[in-house]
Design a protein that fits this description.
Layout: H1 12-22, H2 28-40, H3 45-53, H4 63-91, E1 95-96, E2 99-100, H5 102-106, H6 108-127, H7 132-155, H8 164-189, H9 194-218, H10 224-227, H11 233-237, H12 242-250, H13 252-262, H14 270-283, H15 285-303, H16 311-325
Antiparallel strand pairs: 1-2
């Protein structure tokens, strides 16, 4: 099975070191919480997208461009991690990346401040670059859209009457537009042709859609290590996901149950939770979701076709394949 390590980049070590340096602080309490986050690590998909997109036209030998790629790669990982810290507070999640969440260990106030600290350091890194005049608007708008996505998700909690179009809109705000921005940022730093930058955005957008659908699938499987958080978390939070939308559309009994959960006329007991998860697995919802994810994967790979045949392009295709492989036997 393909793994994201197949797309690993030698510059990632520099990204990790820059993140560590950027998060070094003289405040012991803050440093303890930051070190807790750094210990968890992560797949670093977003930094990889920046680094690889910056080299789709060939390896960067310009030291200034290489430094810029590393700085933006570090910045997007900080932005992503900050969003996870804030999401965990909102969702009241106890675990993330195999360890206790910040708010569950240090409280909401401290965790919120850490998330804000990460965001401030991310934009400091971008502000120091010569190309900040076009990178800052790109990344600040992307963070704004991330926030809009979180608000939309809260508004639509337990609303499984939504259309697939609305579902994909939420995916765009919460996931795919940020991956598209990562790819665009790398392309801009690497001085890619306008057509290539558009292709990178299209690749990132479709990659993000596939990534989010696969996460939806994994929420109904019994492998929390793949998901990075407890399985069933989305169901517990009433998050609109494609498998649940599929189930509600085809089985009236479960549509009524989900509507009752939305209006809080009933609670999500362990028995009901398992009944819904079993119904999703038996209804064909996971297979349907897998097909939609595969459509997005193929669209992402198609977008790469206009790019030069370089090692960076090959690694970008590996990322798309590895993301699909995460769902295992569903495919």
């Amino acid at each position: 099975m393909l793994s994201l390590s197949a797309a690993a980049d030698p510059l990632l070590q520099q990204v990790d070191q820059l993140i560590k340096d950027a998060l070094t602080t003289s405040f012991p309490h803050l440093q303890e919480m930051v070190d807790h986050l750094l210990l968890a690590g992560g797949k670093k998909i977003r930094p990889l997208l920046v680094l690889l997109s910056g080299r789709v036209s060939g390896e960067q030998r310009n030291p200034s461009q290489r430094r810029s790629l590393v700085s933006v790669a570090a910045a997007v990982e900080l932005i992503h991690t900050a969003s996870l810290v804030h999401d965990d507070i909102i969702d009241r999640a106890d675990r993330r990346r195999g360890q206790a969440t910040l708010h569950s260990r240090w409280g909401n106030r401290s965790a919120t401040l850490v998330g804000d600290f990460l965001l401030s350091r991310a934009f400091d890194l971008i502000s120091d670059l010569e190309q900040n005049w076009n990178l800052l608007p790109l990344m600040s708008r992307s963070v704004m859209l991330l926030c809009r996505g979180e608000v939309l998700q809260l508004e639509k909690s337990y609303d499984y009457s939504i259309s697939e179009q609305e579902y994909f809109r939420c995916n765009y705000l919460k996931t795919s537009q940020f991956l598209a921005a990562c790819c665009e940022a790398g392309g801009r730093i690497g001085a890619a042709a306008p057509a290539h930058i558009r292709a990178l955005r299209e690749y990132g957008f479709n990659l993000g859609q596939a990534f989010q659908i696969v996460d939806d699938i994994l929420d109904f499987k019994d492998d929390p290590e793949k998901l990075g958080k407890p399985v069933g978390a989305d169901l517990d939070q009433g998050v609109m996901t494609l498998p649940l939308i599929y189930l509600a559309r085809r089985q009236e009994r479960f549509r009524l149950i989900l509507e009752a959960l939305k209006t809080r006329r009933m609670s999500l007991s362990p028995g009901l939770r398992e009944s819904i998860r079993r119904a999703v697995r038996e209804s064909g919802a996971l297979e349907y979701s897998a097909r939609r994810a595969d459509q997005a994967r193929r669209a992402a790979l198609q977008a790469l076709q206009v790019l030069p045949q370089t090692p960076a392009r090959t690694r970008l295709s590996h990322i798309a394949e590895a993301i699909m492989a995460r769902a295992g036997e569903v495919f």
